[in-house]
Amino acid sequence: MNHRPVSARINPEAGMDVLSKAEVRRLTEATSGGLYELFRRCTLAVLTTGSESDDARAVLARHPDFEVRVVQQDRGVKLDLIDAPAQAFVDGEIIRGIRQLLFAVLRDILYVENEIKTRASLVESEGITNAVFDILRNAGVLRAQTAPNLVVCWGGHSISRKEYDYTKKVGYELGLRGLDICTGCGPGAMKGPMKGAAIAHAKQRLEHTRYIGITEPGIIAAESPNPIVNHLVIMPDIEKRLEAFVRMGHGIVVFPGGVGTAEEILYLLGILLHPDNEHVPFPVVFTGPKDSAAYFEQIDAFLRLTLGDAAAARYRIIVDDPVAVARHMRQGLTHVTEHRVEAKDAFFFNWTLKIPEAFQHRFAPTHEAMAELQLHRERPVHELAADLRRAFSGIVAGNVKEEGIRAIEAHGAYELRGETPIMEAMDALLEAFVAQHRMKLPGAEPYKPCYRLKR
Which of 83, 116, 149, 258 could form a disulfide with 438 if both were Cys (CB 3.0 to 4.6 A apart)? Predict the structure, then answer.
């Protein structure tokens, strides 16, 4: 097999071949200036689709000579790839799915830079939601004439083979029932449901099915898109990525995972526990194989301790039964459809869901910000959930995001302080994640925690 780097000029995907000269000029200037390194990292992540590494810096180190350039032409743009990973090519020709994702990177980075970041309204809740909507609409993933059928699947990129096989079985059962899949676009529990659904969709002879991967620049290099993704969307940050999941998705299935999955769960439950969302139907299932039952018992105990039994009432745990998961989700989507019709809400975007600003504004996990989180149960439950989400988000950054890894190297581990029962429960949960290799993909070096818990 040839592993030598490949250089090639790539023709544009549909939508990038009809640009004005002004648009082409802005695109060329942006990707050769301050945005170049961001564009290069995201492009390299797409070219290493299917990578087994979750070390963003290691991926960059393996391809130090890789470059990408936007070539300006009167009728649009092309991409010049220099010393690109050979795995993205077959007999010198780039794989079509990878080419599609490359231009999705270009599309989203350009749109966010030129159309989103310049908005003054991004400091307000409504303005943030409108920005999320506009990015998704520009990416072409919102379907106005389709009844609710999009299931978001969350779970870890570092899971066991048995857990991965189980995610495929659940995806298969969802696909047989005509449901499309949206995940974080990476490997593990993000890939398995798409793979299973793809087989089921083929059996049912379904066309125009969606396998949507939603990511953000800080995570894409550590979780490169899996090969099943046919719609890639790069949101500007983790908060807008999470809002995109819950605004666009109609139900959520949660598989075993690590701190990233815990962050997603806390984000979702914190929103659903807001008083304004009490009557908004949103089916949520936690599921895994029989061997993962203890994992969900730990998650359930942590959620009940921190957020109370009201949080547990918003999800259902189903162990080792893919058919039951799919049937529960299909039934739940019937209620979602009825509610959207009654509330006159769009099928393709959940406008009526109330998302407090605490869940929308970007959290930069500096050492000072992590130490100032208020992890105490006397707070309103949705506010506690917001800070718990930030705590786990910071740990994700320290584990796999380049910016977070550099901060830990420079200043040592993050310190988290809070109420003793919460700290003890969090310590037990994180220790279990470490023991089960859910923090990072197993490697030569043992996992070194990027956090310290203070009671």
Answer: 258
